[in-house]
Amino acid sequence: MTTALETQLRSRAHDLLAEGVVELFLGYRQGSNPLRVAPFVARTPLETAKLVWNAVCVPNLAGTLAKHAGQRIGVALKACDAQSVRELLKLNQLERSRLYLIGIGCAGMADPAAITDAAPGRVTGLAEAGPDLVLTTADDVVRRERGTLLLTKCATCTGMPTDFCDEWLGEAPPAPPAVPAERFAAVQALATLAPPERLAFWSEHLSRCTLCYACQTVCPLCFCKECALTLERDHPRRQAREPMTIFAYHLMRAYHLADRCTGCDECSRVCPEDIPLNLICRKLEQDRSQV
Amino acid sequence: MSEPFEPKIVGLLCSWCAYAGADTAGVSRVQYPPNLRIVRVMCSGRVDPLFVARAFEHGADGVLVAGCHPGDCHYLSGNNYAEERFAKFAQLLDFFGLDQRRFKLAWVSGSEGARFAAIVAEMTEELRALGPLELKVQ
């Protein structure tokens, strides 16, 4: 089922490509199952029919955008992606004049894991109906409230940067809300622990880290061509996975992102070991807001 | 038989002040614990927090970064950069639960041999009490 927003997006992308305003249009295409989407670059007006916009467009497009830097490119942005793009522009990784930014009125993205838990079986279809999501499984169709399935970052979204996009699709953006206190609740809970307990918390989580560097690869703001922190696959230190090697990596990654991280939570999304890396992002954000 | 724990401390000392201060301590025969391994750097502003993280990774129990007093930097502002950088870095160390006492940023001028010795002695004492930096694999 195609939503109005999706149709609008496809037609705008089609027109932009047909008129030659942009060479590429970046959005999402359907992924391997209904709860997955993948970044997708449309190069011809015809290809825009593949673009989708649904309730699980979670990946951050800013990283993909940076890979295509230099070309004239249009992109559909939700609030968190726009924050990352703004940061990339600030750091001279993109050229504003070569971008055509379409802001999307985003009602918050649903967590695919939460959807899977909420559905009575394997989800074979996902649609939107007002404030609800309609989940189709093999022998049932259920409605679930979108608000209860949101990603944690979306539940406490800080909104789209003002006067940033070239045009808007969907509902006009609500005024950026004050930063909700619950955004930092988990970090504050961690801060009240004694240092040894915090160390135990991180040891427990980081001991699962395999140094796969997915968090670094996916991060839109980790754009160095060569990274001082990554070790070759056959490097003894990477293979031994000493706890302090892992700590040093995550510590330095946090330090390098200290004034860049925009809190898109891509790192914790891609982590194969489900390490709560988003806590680090929240911590950085909290520290910045206190300066 | 277990020997009492002796911490290993890596000292990243600026060539113009802190390193000279260590030299003054030596020349004037001030006693301080031999737990410090000194690395001379040209300026405290040269010290990347990565050096500190690597020192911990390779077995240091504590790291001391020392440079010129604010305003006395040989390169005018290197120590100001160091101060900003390590303020942020220390916050992150704390966030990950590594004890704040394991990392120290100090200002020591070339003539302050006794002060340098006192800083090293104090840090060594603290780390002896704190024990080795051991991260357990769960």
From TrEMBL, chain A:
InterPro entries: 4Fe4S_Fe-S-bd, 4Fe4S_Fe_S_CS. The keyword Iron applies. Residues 252-282 form the 4Fe-4S ferredoxin-type domain. Keywords: Iron, Iron-sulfur, Metal-binding. Pfam families: Fer4_8. GO terms for molecular function: iron-sulfur cluster binding; metal ion binding. It comes from the Bacteria. This is 4Fe-4S ferredoxin-type domain-containing protein.
Automatic annotation (TrEMBL), chain B:
GO terms for molecular function: iron-sulfur cluster binding; metal ion binding; oxidoreductase activity. Keywords: Iron, Iron-sulfur, Metal-binding, Oxidoreductase. It comes from the Bacteria. Pfam families: FlpD. The keyword Iron applies. InterPro entries: MvhD/FlpD. Residues 9-131 form the F420-non-reducing hydrogenase iron-sulfur subunit D domain. This is Methyl-viologen-reducing hydrogenase subunit delta. It comes from Candidatus Chloroploca asiatica.
